[in-house]
Amino acid sequence: MYFCIRMTLLTVVFFFAVGSQFSFAGGKTYQGKEASTHCTLWSNERLKWPQTIMGREKAECRRRAVDSSTSNTECRLLRTYIDKESGERMCIYKRHGTGLDELTLSMSAFLNCQRDFMCKRTAK
To answer: What are phi and psi of 23, to 5 degrees?
Structure first.
């Protein structure tokens, strides 16, 4: 009985001692090159045995990953209004994607806003 109580008490003290230690973590941000990005498409067409030594040539990367900020996304019209100060029509578009800002364009009050178009992707 005393043995079980002691073991339970020692276990609780051990977990409190380990859990109360501060942990210091440092983050690193890497800026890679295009050649060091991960591969999204590998060449799966390997040669069979008599053409190579035991068919053990290395697979080659056919397509490298690109940064998502370099691509375009679709922008769709959310709302439009006429600015009282400038007299111009303000078109507010929603960029498709996660965490992207709205796009605001101004044009003449006599023109209509375009419903959707391909626009640049910018993060929040």
So the answer is: -115, 135
